[in-house]
């Protein structure tokens, strides 16, 4: 038997569970952030940490954005990395392609200026 359907969209960091869209909506409410996506990425020890991808519509103060997160999220959800990107991988319906975010985040962290979305 094969079970198919919607992938579980819950982040589990340090035992705290939260839906990514909850975190993304909080990030998108910050001045200068047009769009946001979050992904759990393993660090050097294999422990998942939160990486944030933002599409800005104005200059964003990283320190102020971190403080914004620290006031509204549990410590396990404080961003380990905040990366600015030109666009997020999205479906034809406009939903974030969550299955592509890890590769997208790795490419962005590696400094690739052009990230293929297709």
Q: How would you describe the overall organization of this protein?
A:
It is built from 3 helices and 5 strands. With 118 residues, the chain is α+β, with helices and mostly antiparallel strands. The strands form 2 sheets. The chain has a 3-stranded mixed beta sheet with strand order 3-4-5, with helices on both faces. The chain has a two-stranded antiparallel sheet with strand order 1-2. The longest helix has 11 residues, at 62-72.
Offer a concise description of the structure.
This protein has helices at 20-28, 62-72, 101-109; strands at residues 11-13, 16-18, 33-42, 48-56, 81-84.
What fold name goes in the CATH topology slot? GMP Synthetase, Chain A, domain 3
Q: What top-tier CATH class fits best?
A: Alpha Beta
Distance between the termini: 31 Å
Number of strands: 5
Strand order of the largest sheet: 3-4-5
Q: What integer is the average pLDDT?
A: 85
Number of domains: 1
**Could you state the order of secondary-structure elements as H and E?**
EEHEEHEH
**How large is the count of helical segments?**
3
Query: What is the general shape?
Result: globular
CATH architecture: 2-Layer Sandwich
Secondary structure category: alpha+beta
How much helical structure, as a percent, in the residues? 10-25%
Task: Give a quick account of the main beta sheet: strands, pairing sense, barrel closure.
Answer: 3 strands, mixed
Indicate the low-confidence ranges by residue numbers.
113-118
Proportion in β-strands: 15-25%
CATH superfamily: ANL, C-terminal domain
**Could you tell me the radius of gyration in angstroms?**
14 Å
